[in-house]
Each structure stands twice: as structure tokens, then as C-alpha cells.
Design a protein that fits this description.
This protein is an alpha+beta fold. It folds into 2 domains: 263 residues, Aminopeptidase (3-Layer(aba) Sandwich), CATH 3.40.630.10; 111 residues, Alpha-Beta Plaits. The chain is built from 10 helices and 22 strands.
Length: 394
């Protein structure tokens, strides 16, 4: 029997194992900064699967290792999730992890615990059939992604000193091969006005009016941003406005806009900041890129600037072609090669550190952050087979 057939047979044999592991991860609610229970559950699963080494690093990422070779492959899957939202929009308990009708149901089934459940099974298969001596595989259950994309990998690369030759990001791709996505950044614009009594507003300078005028300009330039044939168009949106004044009977002397900026190919931080600075053109306004700094579930405080660079690999890049080859070898058909609409940890892995990334993961990304999230068990089976063969043939 060929290695390919052994992998397919074992992935199918362990489909209930994969589904049950995912169910257990879903049952551990794990919002960003509060992933501890899910982290220890994933560590337990890696230990049970026979990984050579499993640790929880200083930040709180779960890192399992198989092999000890010079070539380093890593798989990334974040274990934090967004919150449940309005329970009335759910048809089932989002934290029960129900398994029925060929699906695993619940918050995080797609975004993004399905990937880790599948790569735990891949690790178990690798331990059974063996792995080439010159390869080390790291399986990373990363944290804080929903709050700050890529921060976890900044820590892994700079503090853990793990620098892979390539990374498979297991965010949902609906079983397609993904090779890029737009970047993003969070921009804040502060407006300083002058307060005056509300009965005589002409005596002051109303910061809300300044911010409102700027917001309308932002809406207009959204239609004028760059377009990339593959990644699509850059975008900008005002997502929050906050103001203050000495009294509700006084002209506002302070207002702040929060801008969500999505960056297509050819757009970067300098370009985006300059666009807003020129647009507002006021001595009473300050444009700045925000920073993120929080304590993880281990108590370590860590942070980075909220600039998440665009990344994209060409379709003929060796790691993308390896993903296509692996898929065709297993499933006897050519995969769709596409992109994510949302952002992933690849903004740091490839966007900053230029480590090649290929995306492949279970689940339909349209269900990410949505009610009634569920993932097909068949996707878990195929993903675990893909991850295994990718390691065997890299």
C-alpha cells in the first residue's frame, strides 16, 4: 500500500477522533487573552497523540513538535475565538460542540479550532507511519489572533527563536489553496476643538463638526483606492466616533475617529497615513497608527503596532505549488487557488518576516464570526490527510 493510501485510510479511520477533539476544544470558551483552558486541552490532545514534545510558551501559545531535522515546517491554527453575540441568532448551543449529521457545531468550529483538531490527527498519523529524519514539524495552537493578528508569531520568532522554512496557515479555506490576503491597519484621528456654551456655539470650535467633515471625506476616498487584480480593492471605513465636552450644554472640544484600513497590494503604512493626513489637512487634528499591548493568559505583557502588512505569493511559488501537488496527489483533482477576504497570522509570518505561507484549512470562511458556525467532518478528514502528506513530501 502506498504512503498516500495509508494516509487517506488513517485520516478516515480517525475521523471520529478528529471530531471529538474539535468538540472538546469548542467546549472550552477561549476569547482572546482568556485561552488558558483551550490551551491546556490542546496540549493534552497533542500529548495523547504521541508528539515528541509539547510546551506552552511564555506568551501562552501551544507548540507541539514532531521530528528533529534541519528543515522546519510549521502549522498555525489560532485557538482564540470571537464572542457568541446574540444568542437568539443561534439555532443550537454554541459551546456544546455537538457532533451530528456529518458536522461539528459551535463557536470556533470554523474560526479556527478546526485547523488545530485536524493537525493533531496529522501528528498522530505521522507518529504511526514515520517522518523523514531531516524534518522538524511544529504544530502551533496560537493565541490572541482575534485581538492582534500575528502577535503570537512575533513572539514565536523573536522570543522562542523558532524560524520555519514554511508555514501552513490552517484558517478556513473551504479546502482550497490560499496564497494571500489584504493587509490592514488601525488608524486614529484626534480633533481638538474649543468649548463654548451651547447657547452660543459660534464662540467655540466644535470638534464633532471637524470629525464629521473628515468622516465624509474618508467615505469619498474609499472609492478612489488602489485595486489589485488578485487581492481586490483597498478600503477604508470609519468604525467609531467618540467625543467629549465639559457639559452636554457645551460645544465639544474633543472628538476621535477610528478608521479600519484594508490594504491591497501596493499599499503600505506610509501611503495610508499620508492619505489621511493630506485629506484632513488641519493643525487641530493628529493622525496616528495605534499600538496593541495586553497581558496574555500567562500574565506576560506583549505588544506590537497595529499595522498588519499585505502579503501575497505568486501562484508558481514553490510552497504554493507544493500545496497544489499535495492536494492533487491525495484527491486526484486540481484545487482552486484563491485568497482570504479576512486577515490571518500570515501578516506577520510572511508580511513582516517573509517566511513562505500556504493556506489550507477546514470550513467555509463565510461562517467565521457568524452564528450557527459548523464545520464538515469530511473537511477535518481531508485536512488531516493533506497536512500529513505535505510533511512527508516537503
Amino acid at each position: 500500500m502506498s504512503d498516500k493510501q495509508k494516509i487517506l485510510d488513517l485520516a478516515e479511520k480517525y475521523k471520529d477522533y478528529s471530531a471529538k477533539n474539535l468538540s472538546k476544544l469548542i467546549q472550552k470558551k477561549s476569547l482572546s487573552l482568556y485561552e488558558s483552558e483551550a490551551a491546556y486541552e490542546l496540549k493534552r490532545q497533542m500529548d495523547e497523540a504521541g508528539f515528541d514534545e509539547v510546551i506552552i510558551d511564555g506568551l501562552g501559545n501551544v507548540i507541539g513538535r514532531i521530528g528533529n531535522g534541519e528543515r522546519i515546517i510549521a502549522f498555525d491554527g489560532h485557538i482564540d475565538t470571537v464572542d457568541i453575540g446574540n444568542m437568539e441568532n443561534w439555532d443550537f448551543d454554541p459551546l456544546a460542540g455537538d457532533i451530528k449529521d456529518g458536522y461539528v457545531y459551535g463557536r470556533g468550529s470554523v474560526d479556527q479550532k478546526g485547523g488545530p483538531a485536524a493537525f493533531v490527527t496529522a501528528g498522530r498519523i505521522l507518529k504511526e507511519i514515520g517522518i523523514e529524519n531531516d524534518v522538524t514539524v511544529y504544530f502551533v495552537g496560537s493565541i490572541m489572533e482575534e485581538d492582534c493578528d500575528g502577535l503570537c508569531w512575533k513572539y514565536i520568532i523573536e522570543e522562542d527563536k523558532i524560524i520555519p522554512d514554511c508555514v501552513v496557515v490552517t484558517e478556513p479555506t473551504n479546502m482550497n489553496i490560499y496564497r494571500g490576503h489584504r493587509g490592514r491597519m488601525e488608524i486614529e484621528v484626534e480633533f481638538i476643538g474649543v468649548s463654548a456654551h451651547g447657547s452660543a456655539p459660534e464662540r467655540g470650535k466644535n470638534a464633532i463638526y471637524m470629525a464629521s467633515e473628515a468622516a465624509l471625506k474618508v467615505e469619498k476616498i474609499n472609492n478612489e483606492l488602489l485595486i489589485d487584480q488578485f487581492l481586490g480593492k483597498g478600503s477604508i471605513s470609519v468604525t467609531e466616533m467618540k467625543s467629549s465636552s465639559p457639559s452636554l450644554c457645551a460645544v465639544s472640544d474633543y472628538c476621535k475617529l477610528h478608521l479600519d484600513r484594508r490594504l491591497t497590494w501596493g499599499e503600505d503604512k506610509e501611503l495610508a497615513v499620508n492619505q489621511i493626513t493630506e485629506l484632513i489637512n488641519s493643525n487641530n487634528a493628529e493622525v496616528k497608527v495605534l499600538n496593541y499591548k495586553e497581558k496574555s493568559h500567562t500574565g506576560i505583557e506583549y505588544g506590537m503596532e497595529k499595522y498588519y502588512p499585505t502579503w501575497m505569493l505568486k501562484e508558481d511559488h514553490p510552497i504554493i505549488q507544493k500545496g497544489v501537488e499535495t492536494y492533487m496527489n491525495l484527491f486526484n483533482e486540481k484545487p482552486v487557488v484563491d485568497k482570504w477576504i479576512f486577515s490571518t497570522n500570515a501578516v506577520v509570518i510572511n508580511g513582516i518576516y517573509k517566511i513562505p505561507v500556504v493556506g489550507f484549512g477546514p470550513g467555509d470562511e463565510t461562517l467565521a464570526h457568524a452564528p450557527n458556525e459548523k464545520v464538515p467532518i469530511e473537511h477535518l478528514v481531508k485536512a488531516s490527510a493533506f497536512y500529513t502528506l505535505f510533511c512527508q513530501t516537503y
